[in-house]
Amino acid sequence: MKIGIGLPNQIRDVRPDVIPAWARASEEAGFSSIASLGRIAYPGVMDTVALAVAAGATSSVGLISTLLLGPVWPAVLLAKEIAGIDAVSGGRLTLGLGLGGRPDDFVVEGLGPRGTGKRLDRDIETYRSVWRGEIPPGCDNPAVPDGTREVPLLFGGMAQASFDRVARAGRGYIGPAAAPALVGPAFDHARTVWKAAGREGTPYLVALGYFALGDEDRGRAGVYDYYGSAGSDGARARADEVCGGVDAVRATVKAYEELGVDELILNPSVDDLDEVARLADAVL
């Protein structure tokens, strides 16, 4: 199982200039991927910006969005953004997509929080059309340079439509950031739906978790704040699932290895750059 690390781009009031240094340190430490979190209505750094910065600051580590909220974006605009990030990285980006569950993230007029599943299905076709170099409606030219590749897609979500989307249009599935025992059935279902659709091989399965190896209390408070819109009980549940300390992190790694996932992304809960080295020492 590969082990990646998240960027601190959605830590409240993150110091933006830590992101390139974090990306460089993560690559040097040997993590498999560097990941972003996606949210609009929160005082962090946009995931597309964070990924672009990471692309420029590194040369070989994978890049992945976990998860970018597809339906909050105009499809052609997002397709162009993603193509550019992937190209400047040398083809290292995997686009993880979700629907979004917080109404305040839908800030573009005409792109509200209703009908997001059907909209994402249409948008996927638009992304691929743009990446193939087809001219978008109303444009005089293609939106991307010739030779742009089709960026691989992963999907998150727990609704049946999300798993169907994986089997129909994805490379794999990203599970929610929850305890391994709770997420295991979702990975099993992704495999089942993939096989039933007649896809060859197996879906690429990505697990998510949060960690805090320095100031555990501050880390849990940060995760509680980020999930505050879920209510106090929901936010507390997420905060309680933060892997605090080396033993907890290693236990989480072992649990996901036993579930047979392909990659585990451990997201930071503070923007302390020393967390990169602490996590590397614990799990690599």
TrEMBL record:
Biological processes, Gene Ontology terms: alkanesulfonate catabolic process
Keyword Transcription regulation applies: no
GO MF entries: alkanesulfonate monooxygenase activity
Span of domain Luciferase-like: 15-217
Keyword terms: Flavoprotein, FMN, Monooxygenase, Oxidoreductase
Entry-linked InterPro entries: Luciferase-like_dom (IPR011251), Luciferase-like_sf (IPR036661), SsuD_RutA_monooxygenase (IPR050172)
PANTHER family linked to this entry: ALKANESULFONATE MONOOXYGENASE (PTHR42847), ALKANESULFONATE MONOOXYGENASE-RELATED (PTHR42847:SF4)
Name this protein carries in UniProt: Luciferase
Lineage: Bacteria, Bacillati, Actinomycetota, Actinomycetes, Kitasatosporales
